[in-house]
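Problem: given the chain below (90 residues), write out its structure.
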Amino acid sequence: MLTTRPCTATCVIDGMPLSVTFYPDNGVLRIADSLGACIKETRWHASWRALLDELRGFSEDAAVQGQSFNTMMGRFSERAGHPLNTMALA
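Solution.
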């Protein structure tokens, strides 16, 4: 069985340090708090690069519009159900 290494990034949203882990072989996306407790687990049907772009876009929007962590979680849930047409490998 092919095993791939997860892609991991750390970011700060609403003052909370979060760890984002994406498993490209099965599409599982986990968001955990600073202690490693899973806050949200969903599926991401695009590339790691697209996920990073989404996080960057959220950070920019949040600064302008005052969006919150719950808004970001809602966006990930929406995107999880709708695969993107651009499935590039990162």
